Amino acid sequence: MQVTSRSLDSAAPTGSSWMPQAFRPPLPAPPITDPDEIAAKYKYFRPRILIWTTIGYGMFYFVRKNLSIAMPLMNTQLGLGTDSLGLILTVHGVLYGVSKFLNGMLADRANARIFMASALIISAILNVCFGLSSALVFFGIFWMLNGWFQGMGYPPCARLLTHWFSPKELATKMSLWNASHVLGGGSIVVLCGYIIQFTDDWRLCFFVPAVLAVGTACFLLIHLRDTPESVGLPEIEGTAPVSAVAGVSEAEIEAKQTAAEFRQFLWRQVFCNPYIWLASAGNFFVYTIRFSIFDWGPFMLKKSKHIELTNATWIMFGFEVAGLGGMLLTGWLTDKYFRGRSAPLCVICMLLCGLSIFLFWLLPPDSPWLCTGLLMSAGFFVYGPQALVAVIVANLATKRAAATAVGLTSIFGYASTVLSGWGLGLLVKTYSWSVAFQCLIVVALCGAVLFAFVLPAKASGYDSHK
Predict the structure, then answer these.
(1) What is the pTM assigned to this prediction?
(2) Cα–Cα distance, 81 to 393 (Å, whole number)
(3) CB pairs under 8 A, 24+ apart, for 200-206?
(4) What are the extents of the domains in the chain?
(5) How far is residue 159's CA from residue 403's CA, in Å, rounded to a whole number?
(6) Which residues contact 152 (CB under 8 A, 6 or more apart)?
(7) CB atoms within 10 A of CB 280
(8) What topology is assigned to 268-453 in CATH?
(9) CA 262 – CA 251 distance, rounded (Å)
(10) Does this chain's domain 19-240 share its CATH topology with 268-453?
(11) Is residue 53 predicted with pLDDT exceeding 80?
């Protein structure tokens, strides 16, 4: 960690003056100079930042993925067709991807603690509104709005993680944080499954998660802090630009930066960086494989490998668990042996993912154990790049623009639903599952090639921006 001098009177957040007061980044607190107190405060805050961003983002799944569990009852009790429910899901997904990108630019200039907690509370309120509705038009409106506010959950996490953890440890910490996807998505399925089993009331699938989400948001407000400087701590070592004026912290630079200057910074640091675009394009192919296997998995296993649906769901559970292991291992390897460079492991993982799909394609029907092993292998290798792409772009964009860069990758990631959803379904209908597997192998190779082009990139952008 490096200690920099800061003057409170020069840190007025002029660049965020257009924001409501509650959402503006807090002013730097009087700096702490005692090394023992600095070490103690970092030891106190850093685990809490990691734990509560993980729990908080996992809770966003509680008020987003609950619809899929409620849909069968909504279909039978309200007479809603699968086409109508599918349209709600599609529009929600599109707005979610766009929101992650646009709100990323806002989150880079906002108080991440307030930003994240507010989004979770609003999503909870919209879930209550959805649960009280009975007409298709209101279902559509409330779930579209929910998609927008759901997109406000990831960007503040990117801001928090990049401010509280150095580039040399970010891959490990972000991989741990990515457990929120698996934990949140898996927990809400179990919770809503029990709710429906014991009550047969689909509305409770929205009311109960909403209460839990509001409670979690309160804990986020208690435990999260926007930046180390906001509590008087020095910047994390390795996150200050070498070109910065001596004695001026990154927090002061950010606070005094006007909106126009921030836009110029984003243009230079994010949108003019070819490696961020290449990594984002690679994310398109990562998500194509992930969504293809996750969304079509049970159907694919039943039709192409003749595995019973109940067994297929457990195989897909194994796919998710293996994915969690892949994220944790690749994050640790990136920091331990690759000095924070994630692109080499992305190349390796995509090639091995393609090999796993190739072997799965050749596998004869009625081989449930081999199917399980190969799909878990594919999950292990595809979830690694999913976590590492965010590490690549966050480090290159620096903590001042991390949320924007991660949001850009989300645009590409969720655009992949064109291939993984409609495209894969059309392939199977027109040709066969065999052709679909061949296309997924090509997708994995395309992703590996794009990540290979990222190999020359620097480990981070902290030595290049002003």
Answers:
(1) 0.81
(2) 40
(3) 200/73, 201/73, 202/70, 202/73, 202/74, 202/77, 203/131, 203/132, 204/131, 205/66, 205/67, 205/69, 205/70, 205/131, 206/63, 206/66, 206/70, 206/127, 206/128, 206/130, 206/131
(4) 19-240, 268-453
(5) 6
(6) 99, 103, 107, 115, 116, 118, 119
(7) 23
(8) Growth Hormone; Chain: A; (1.20.1250)
(9) 13
(10) yes
(11) yes
Task: Round to whole Å and give the CA distance between 226 and 113.
Answer: 6
**C-alpha distances out from residue 325 to 56, 61, 176, Å:** 21, 20, 10
The distance of Cα 417 from the centroid of its chain, to the nearest Å, equals: 16
Q: Which amino acid is at 128?
A: V
**CATH, domain 19-240, list 1.20.1250.20, 3.40.50.1700, 2.60.40.10, 3.90.550.10:** 1.20.1250.20
Residue range 83-95: average pLDDT?
Answer: 77
Residues 288/343, Cβ–Cβ less than 8 Å? no
- Per mean pLDDT, which range of 13-22, 37-46, 84-93, 160-169 is the poorest? 13-22
- The answer to whether the CB of 175 falls within 8 A of the CB of 328 is yes
The CA distance from 156 to 115, in Å, is 7
Chain position carrying tokens 């009975």: 134
Q: What is the pLDDT of residue 262?
A: 82
Using one digit for the tens of pLDDT, what is the confidence trace for 350-385?
999 999 999 999 988 878 889 889 999 999 999 999
Length of the chain: 466
Return the SS3 of 129: helix
Question: What's CA 184's distance to the chain center, in Å?
Answer: 12
